[in-house]
Specification:
The chain is of the alpha/beta class. About 40% of the residues lie in helices and about 15% in strands. The chain is globular and about 40 Å long.
């Protein structure tokens, strides 16, 4: 199991030792195990416990900005909730270090993919990897 998860992290996610990886998950979801395997690569894990819209709707993106997260993982439901709340992460937060946004769980809508592509005013979307785990 560890070897398969390492394959996914190294080859599919391009995780490196210098990366900071975050996945909005709980320890009851299989993505927790996948996330913790990042330690075997030597990457830094960022963990979050709580409601993702507290203290503000873009709270997880502020976390990404403040801790220079390079790989940000979430769910289609979270992205839909961000769209409904009018949050524009690429415009409201400095996400320059971010190189990958991953989604898992339910299928992501077309609007969700387009939302993830809205990076920022400088047009860094060309280098942003959109992945599905």
């Amino acid at each position: 199991m560890l070897i398969n998860q390492l394959k996914e992290l190294l080859l599919h996610t391009d995780l490196k030792r210098e990366d900071t990886i975050f996945y909005f998950t709980t320890c009851g979801w299989m993505m927790w195990n996948w996330l913790t395997c990042s330690l075997a690569v030597g990457a830094t894990l960022m963990l979050y416990d709580g409601f993702p819209f507290h203290p503000q709707a873009g709270g997880l993106w502020k976390l990404a900005q403040d801790h220079k997260i390079t790989i940000f993982g979430t769910s289609a439901g979270y992205i839909a909730a961000l769209m409904a709340a009018g949050v524009k992460p690429g415009k409201e937060y400095n996400l320059t270090p971010l190189k990958s946004v991953l989604s898992t769980g339910s299928p992501l809508s077309i609007e969700g993919f387009e939302f993830r592509l809205q990076r920022d005013k400088e047009g860094h979307s060309a280098r942003l990897h959109l992945g599905r785990v």
